[in-house]
Write a structure and sequence with these properties.
Elements lengths: L1 H23 L2 H21 L8 H26 L7 H23 L8 H23 L2 H28 L14
Helix pairs in contact: 1-2, 1-6, 2-3, 3-4, 4-5, 5-6
Length: 186
């Protein structure tokens, strides 16, 4: 799981760079950085399937839709980089996948709370990040432009912390390089 750990760390760096580009007014560069972030976010979302959950069927269902949301966000960002999709349509199209990813972060963290692998702090950051993504989505849907930017900046900071925590956990996870033992080999 070390490659997923690297993608979690890289996604945090890409998102921080995208926020910095936004603050500096480099919108074209920001779009590229967000594309890099969304691609790396997909692998982080997939890595969450390794989270031990008390309701694995529920986690699998929501995780599937979280993965679909991450892929949808990649497609939306490709259109933004190609300068085909602009505000306000960009925000409206990006809000749905952000909500799906936020729900996946919430469900994975809530269903896995208190396990031996993921510390409570990482799960708490997952809950806060998921709630932040949902809050940004609701702010976009309701047209609260004054709340969208500060909420997005706060959620970006939470995601960076969450990605660092996930990266540490993914790094320590077994690599699964050993072949599985079958009943016949035992």
């Amino acid at each position: 799981m070390r490659w997923i750990s690297a993608s979690a760390y890289s996604s945090a760096v890409a998102l921080l760079a995208a926020v910095a580009a936004q603050l500096l007014g480099w919108t074209g560069f920001r779009a590229w950085l967000l594309l890099i972030w969304t691609i790396l976010l997909f692998f982080t979302v997939i890595g969450l399937f390794d989270h031990p959950m008390r309701g694995p069927a529920w986690g699998l269902f929501v995780g599937f839709w979280g993965g679909v949301g991450a892929l949808w966000l990649v497609a939306i960002q490709v259109f933004a980089v190609a300068d085909v999709l602009h505000e306000p349509a960009y925000g409206a199209w990006a809000a749905w996948p952000l909500a799906l990813i936020g729900i996946w972060f919430l469900v994975a963290s809530l269903l896995g709370w208190g396990n031996d692998v993921y510390p409570g702090l990482v799960d708490a950051l997952g809950i806060l990040t998921g709630a932040g993504l949902l809050g940004v989505s609701v702010a976009i849907w309701t047209g609260l432009a004054s709340a969208t930017r500060p909420g997005a900046a706060l959620t970006a900071g939470l995601y960076v912390l969450y990605a660092i925590g996930l990266g540490l956990i993914f790094w320590a996870s077994p690599t699964r390089a050993e072949p599985l033992r079958t009943a016949a080999s035992l």
